[in-house]
Every structure is written in C-alpha cells, then in structure tokens.
Amino acid sequence: MQTFWTMHPSAAPAARKPLPSESSSVAAPVAARAAAPVAVPPAVQGCTNLKLRRLGRVVARHYEACLAGSGLRINQYSLLSAVVKLGPVGLGELASVLRLDSSTLSRNLQPLVEQGLVEVCPGEVDARAREAIATAAGQSMRAEAQRAWKQAQLALNERLGRERVAALHALLDESLAILEAPPADV
To answer: Does the predicted TM-score (pTM) go above 0.85?
Structure first.
C-alpha cells in the first residue's frame, strides 16, 4: 500500500528560469535545498532516566562479571583508579572529579581502606584536610583489575561496534557538558 501521494510527471509545475541576478552557483544549492526533504526529529518516547538506568545496569553487570576475579566491584575499581591516577589527592578534589558528594565518597572509600588498598591521611599542605593515596597493594590490585577492565571494554566495543561506542561517548560527553553547565538566562 502506498502511503504517500505522488504527482504525475505531466502535472508537475514548470521550473522557473533563473533571474539574471541569480548566478548558477547560488541557484543550484538553493534549488537542491528546496527539493531536499526536511528532517523531522523523532518523537521522544519513554523516560530518559529509565532508559539510562537500564543501560547503566546492563553495562555495569558486564563489567562486574569481567572484574569478578579481581576482587573489586566496578565502582571500587573506578575509585581506586582515580586515586592511583591523581596520586595523593584531597578528598574534596576526588569527590569533585568523580562527581560524588563527600558522604558517598567516604562510604565508597571505606572498603578500599579496610582492604589496605588506599590510605586516608592528613594532607601534606594542610593537615586539617584529608588526602587519599593508593598503597603498594592498591597499585598492584589496580594493575591486575585494569587487565580485566580492558577485556570488558574490548568485549563491549566488539558487541556494540566501535563506531556506535564512539558516538555514544560523544553523546554522553556532550550531554554531560550541557546538563552540568549553568542554565542560560532566557
């Protein structure tokens, strides 16, 4: 069944001749744009939060399964990686980098401290501020877990396709930048 009405070629309106002031280099792109269909964005259906949370759970399960042998959960791996990468880092800065509030950071750091992977000690510059530093055991554990993380990453890239993953990363980065920016005055 045909869903769009089409005009018979004999009933098509005659093309107008370009005016002398219209150069062919300008008229051709304008005519092409006029003839091109207008892209209509698809309607947004469903709850964005629900879709993101579902995707997050599926992806987290994938990484958790790959990291299971390392003894770290994915959130512990991410936290330990940030501490290793940033070196001795103030807890406020660490919370900011990871976009966590201070109580969530403290709660997530506790298992790493108990396992001897991270130490929380007074800051070098300001003894009143606390800093996190990875122990030798923490650096070793992170290196081991990083191999498992890499396998998880490669498997996900393979399953989704590198182009789709790159587009997803770009969309996520762009969305974060928009949502974390102060609202524009209207």
So the answer is: no
